What we know:
Layout: E1 2-7, H1 16-30, E2 39-46, H2 48-59, E3 67-71, H3 75-80, E4 88-96, H4 97-107, H5 111-126, H6 135-151
Parallel strand pairs: 1-2, 2-4
Antiparallel strand pairs: 3-4
Helix pairs in contact: 1-5, 1-6, 4-5, 5-6
Amino acid sequence: MQLDTEVEPPWPSGDWxxxxxxxxxxxxxxxxxxxxxxxSTSLLFTxxxxxxALNREWRGRDxxxxxxxxxxxxxxxxxxxxxxGPPELLGDIALAHETCAREAAEKGVPLADxxxxxxxxxxxxxxxxxxxxxxxxxxxxERLEIAALEKLAIADPYGDRV
Length: 162
């Protein structure tokens, strides 16, 4: 997968593009459909204000959130996508700095680790995984997140919940 990453203020300086690429590789190890070389995803590290505007416009929710995912492919289409052919847009992800930083501080984890977790979460949403419909779905998605984060040497963010 090709990842087109843009980092905007107020994100601090750092290798956010490298973190995103490394995280995408880890996710592809546990969700091989995301390793398809034809896939392209945009990832925006931005502000709470920008994510709030996107959430209001596209989701009808008038508040910021930590991560938004906008899938462009249905899961069945993703799974059927061959390795040869033109590029395919998997979707877009946006991370809100202030919310991410606050959550990382509350959890006592580095911002980079929490951002990696949210990138994993966003990519899994783009691949058609969800956690809203049922506890079974939520637990399955959490197991995938934990497995991907383990590849990055990041501790289980859910503790003993799964």
